[in-house]
Specification:
SH3 type barrels; 2 domains; mainly beta
Length: about 210
């Protein structure tokens, strides 16, 4: 069983912390978890995709990677590269920060040739399938009628990533945590979990003990 919690520290087999869980990548149709996005750094963070198969153990306190797992071998969550402006098939705004690159041309000896400087814009692409969703750590959870019932604290899965339930933490000063069966999850987006249950149904679930 893997207990994948939001913002949990991730450690190598040598007990070196390599980051924290920033997102959980899953298939919204099957709920199966395929990867976790591990973030390292604060001011210049680096996000890596860690397959669920490379996780040895996972508890709410920490995630341990397998002996052979190396962060250097994992793909970045987002790839960034530059393409010519005229090849971009989307609106380009001020935040795209177009860059000019000189492209020298050869010509007759002694002749000055103009140097074209095409504008390049950055493109960002995620290294996950379009059918997958990268759920934010601590995403809000909503009951029917879009009533907020708390935030996602963790997802509990098998070693193959198939979830059995989620744990939802409400927002009180002394927050309660409740186990919600995965069958009650109606939909998952990148920034929210939607339940097929009323607020009253969720609040009727007995809260977990503090040490669970």
């Amino acid at each position: 069983m893997l207990d994948i919690a939001s913002n949990t520290g991730v450690y190598t087999a040598r007990d070196e912390q390599v980051g924290t869980v920033d997102r959980i990548v899953l298939d919204p149709s099957t709920r199966a978890v395929s990867h976790v996005v591990v973030r390292k750094g604060i001011f210049f963070p680096e996000d890596k995709l860690v397959p669920i198969s490379d996780i040895a153990t996972a508890t709410p306190e920490r995630i341990n990677l397998r002996q052979e797992a190396s962060m250097d071998d994992f793909l970045p969550f987002v790839e960034r590269y530059y393409v010519p402006l005229d090849e971009v098939d989307r609106p380009v705004g001020p935040s795209d920060q177009a860059v000019r690159f000189a492209m020298p041309l050869s010509g007759p000896v002694g002749e000055t040739m103009p140097t074209p400087q095409p504008e390049l814009v950055p493109v960002r692409e995620r290294n996950i399938s379009e059918r997958l969703t990268a759920l934010e750590a601590g995403a809000p959870v909503f009951a029917t009628g879009h009533e907020a019932v708390g935030r996602l604290e963790r997802i509990v899965t098998t070693g193959q990533g198939q979830p059995s339930h989620i744990v939802v933490e409400d927002g009180g000063l002394s927050p309660d945590r409740r186990t919600v069966p995965i069958e009650l999850v109606l939909d998952i987006t990148e920034d929210a979990v939607l339940l097929d249950a009323t607020r009253e149904m969720i609040e009727a679930i007995v809260p977990l003990d503090l040490d669970e």
